[in-house]
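TA notes, week 10

Several of you asked for a full example with nothing omitted. So below is the full record: structure tokens for the whole chain, then the designed sequence directly under it. When grading your own attempts, check the secondary structure regions first.
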């Protein structure tokens, strides 16, 4: 449940786009945070007020004894004071009508001991009660690069080249976020840099929402650590979606699965990281795997627009660079179709016979002697309607190549309004021409062919994505009530029989079974079903029945049932005395084994999972995760992403399975998890046997939060 909607743009405008800034706790000492903040406001066109009762003047600037003594209310107050003085100054800032406050002080919620968390909670309370927006504590401040308002203690922002660009930066890591801003040294332009700090009041979702509504920003890059309110992050993503602004996100700690004591396959496969990735997908964010990809990808989305076609053309006078491009295109499933016949005829009139009048196009080294041949080749491919973008690998950095070619490329981009993407392959990273391309807000540049094609693939995927809508319910109130009664009466882990009753209430097909308390009851049940049968221990204390020796499959006769019953009971008694009996089930017809599950992530909430494999699922780790509940259509998309998906559609002549029925089961299990997230911990339906004629849940485990 969302704690609140993200702040509106107007709520944060005075803080992030101030006309007046007050630095409280200003010190004349060189290198002090106050002096650094003052220096970083050196090019700011608004009013700057210094506040410190110890001084009447600092250098040539008057110094005021308090916020109340200022000639007018400040839009932004920068607190450069120890933690002990912060709360009183927040009250004073609210009293004078300040627009917002930046708190540098640390030793708050990031501390494991002491009163840090309580102090941070008090800041949050003041902010809420007084309707005063607070950035921090424990943050390095913010930069409005458009107005040059450098409200940060990071050294020498005022010395950075002033390059305004379309990309805004929000970061939960102050240092890493500022490191992105330093790309201005090589020509990149930004609109904003905002560090979230501990987010007592303003959090990462609020900052994404602010930039989504800010006209100076066309795409947002985010260094992400974590979030307390997943629903609010989704709301921020929706604002960015409505504004048609990409949010490019890099999550720190991708390999950490969180503090998870999973009893099931679902729990081990759907880690906290997996759940967060599902949240990003639902929010419409573009996820990058490398920190180095953030600025490049964000700049690409800021200037790429929407793809007019899916094909990508490559023009390179290096045949090897063209091969690299083709390899990466295949890796990321980016189409590189061959030119239309008319386009090929044009290329053949330009390119020598030893070149390549195809895609990738190699006009050869003649472009050095006949520069116009480069323009003609690029023009011919951009005029081909198959191509929505063109990649230009720059393998040589030289004034006669990269510098001279820049003007040609810029003119071609303006003429055709299709992205012309520079792949800078030269290890002379800041060689001739690099600054021209980096500082151009219309020409994307990548220093990696891999990242280039990953971004193009994400561009196409984002164009295909649709805004999420509520899934149509598949179950009714009676199902919720029946499942709730079983869940409420159960112990921490439901037995297989109890778990299947819950699933059946939600319309998941489960097979027949009987609980046998004695071996004779087991034999009678087996005879009633007909052989072969399976026997399984029924005990709330044994979650993993196979590992406990509590399962016997394919029993063909009475003797086999009697022997198996005795073995199962003996094995179970080594683990527990809490034994309800032995389940007898007819053996399911063979098919493809699938795991369907869900778990409740402490931050994200209910997430659904589907994977291939039965007992192989953890070994192969072929599974996909999505925010629950999912519709049947979303479930089919999850299935299509599996590496083993061909096994479902008829691999090497096998019979295709019932995808619709399987998707229905995934959707129903996800609905069950979302409906009962307050009491369910994990759901593990493994295996689900899927055939051409339908599906059957053969085994199940539901763990509650008790």
């Amino acid at each position: 449940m969302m704690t609140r909607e993200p702040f509106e743009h107007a709520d944060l405008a005075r803080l992030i786009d101030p006309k007046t800034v007050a630095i409280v706790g200003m010190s004349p000492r060189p290198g002090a945070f106050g002096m650094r903040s003052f220096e970083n406001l050196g090019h700011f066109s608004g009013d700057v007020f210094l506040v410190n009762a110890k001084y009447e003047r600092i250098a040539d600037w008057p110094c005021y004894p308090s916020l109340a003594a200022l000639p007018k209310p400040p839009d932004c107050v920068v607190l450069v004071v120890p933690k002990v003085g912060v709360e009183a100054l927040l009250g004073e800032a609210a009293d004078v009508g300040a627009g917002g406050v930046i708190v540098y002080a640390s030793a708050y919620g990031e501390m494991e001991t002491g009163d840090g968390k309580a102090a941070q909670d008090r800041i949050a309370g003041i902010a809420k009660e007084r309707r005063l927006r607070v950035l921090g504590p424990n943050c390095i401040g913010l930069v409005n690069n458009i107005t040059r308002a450098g409200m940060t203690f990071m050294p020498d922002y005022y010395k950075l080249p002033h390059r305004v660009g379309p990309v805004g930066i929000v970061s939960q890591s102050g240092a890493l976020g500022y490191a992105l801003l330093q790309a201005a040294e090589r020509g990149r332009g930004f609109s904003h840099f905002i560090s979230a700090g501990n987010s007592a009041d303003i959090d990462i979702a609020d900052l994404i929402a602010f930039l989504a509504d800010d006209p100076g920003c066309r795409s947002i890059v985010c260094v992400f650590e974590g979030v307390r309110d997943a629903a609010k992050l989704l709301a921020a993503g929706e604002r960015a979606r409505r504004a048609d602004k990409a949010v490019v996100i890099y999550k720190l700690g991708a390999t950490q699965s969180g503090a998870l004591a999973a009893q099931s396959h679902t729990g081990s496969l759907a880690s906290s990281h997996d759940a967060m990735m599902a949240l990003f997908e639902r929010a419409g964010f573009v996820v990058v795997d490398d920190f180095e990809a953030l600025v490049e990808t964000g700049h690409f989305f800021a200037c790429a627009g929407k793809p007019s076609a899916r094909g990508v053309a490559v023009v390179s006078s290096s045949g090897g660079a063209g091969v690299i491009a083709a390899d990466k295109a295949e890796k990321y499933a980016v189409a590189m179709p061959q030119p239309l016949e008319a386009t090929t005829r044009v290329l053949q009139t330009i390119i020598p016979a030893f070149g390549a009048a195809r895609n990738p196009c190699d006009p050869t080294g003649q472009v050095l002697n006949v520069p116009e041949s480069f323009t003609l080749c690029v023009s011919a491919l951009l005029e081909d309607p198959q191509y929505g973008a063109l990649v230009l690998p720059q393998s040589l950095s030289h004034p006669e190549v990269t510098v001279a070619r820049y003007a040609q490329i810029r003119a071609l981009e303006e003429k055709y309004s299709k992205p012309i993407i520079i792949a800078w392959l030269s290890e002379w990273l800041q060689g001739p021409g690099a600054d021209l391309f980096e500082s151009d807000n219309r020409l994307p540049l990548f220093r990696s062919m891999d990242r280039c094609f990953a971004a193009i693939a994400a561009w196409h995927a984002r164009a295909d994505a649709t805004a999420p809508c509520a899934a149509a319910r598949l179950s009714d109130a009676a199902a919720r009530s029946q499942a709730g009664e079983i869940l409420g009466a159960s112990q921490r882990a439901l037995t297989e029989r109890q778990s299947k009753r819950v699933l059946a209430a939600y319309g998941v097909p489960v097979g027949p079974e009987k609980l046998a308390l004695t071996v004779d009851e087991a034999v009678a049940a087996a005879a009633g079903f007909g052989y072969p049968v399976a026997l399984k221990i029924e005990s709330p204390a044994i979650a993993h029945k196979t590992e406990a020796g509590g399962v016997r499959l394919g029993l063909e006769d009475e003797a086999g049932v009697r022997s198996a019953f005795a073995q199962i009971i003996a094995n179970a008694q080594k683990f527990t005395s809490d034994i309800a009996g032995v389940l007898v089930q007819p053996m399911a017809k063979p098919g493809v084994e699938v795991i369907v599950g869900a778990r409740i992530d402490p931050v994200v909430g209910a997430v659904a999972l589907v994977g291939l494999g039965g007992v192989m699922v953890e070994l192969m780790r072929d599974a996909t995760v999505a925010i629950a509940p999912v519709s049947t259509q979303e479930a089919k998309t999850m299935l299509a992403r599996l590496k083993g998906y061909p096994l479902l559609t008829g691999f090497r002549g096998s019979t295709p399975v019932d995808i619709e029925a399987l998707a229905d089961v995934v959707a129903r299990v996800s609905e069950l998890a979302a409906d009962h997230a307050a009491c369910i911990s994990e759901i593990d339906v493994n295996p689900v046997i899927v055939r051409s004629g339908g599906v059957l849940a053969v085994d199940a485990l539901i763990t509650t939060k008790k």
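The two ends are 21 Å apart (CA to CA). Use that as a sanity check on your answer.
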